[in-house]
Structure formats: structure tokens, C-alpha cells
Write the C-alpha cells for this entry.
Amino acid sequence: MNKTKKQTPVRYRAARSDASVGTIINSIENDFGLPSGSVKLVLPTGRKARVDGKIRSLQKAWSE
């Protein structure tokens, strides 16, 4: 029997809540081969999320 591991591609994994917004932006750009500065994560108000902020705060803002 040939058992192969089913692996989920990196681009489908959820971001950790304690990761910084800047780290996730860089990860998205690298995973999809996008140029630097092409990804922007925004708050519900339309403002750009701070690069040194945490994903947890971004998730909280969107859930409210």
C-alpha cells in the first residue's frame, strides 16, 4: 500500500493571531509571487492596518 501524506499548501493556512500584520503581508506577497507593496490589509473603516499591529486586533476589528 502506498500511503501519501495529504499536505495543505502554505497559501491556504490561516494566519496566527499573534503574528504581525507586516509579516502576513510579506508572506502573502511571497506565496503568490506578488511585487513588494502590492498587498494592503485594511480595517473596516477603510484605513490601512498598521504594519506593527497584530492579526488578532485586525480580526477583532472586523468581527465587531
In short: The helical segments are 21-32, 55-63.
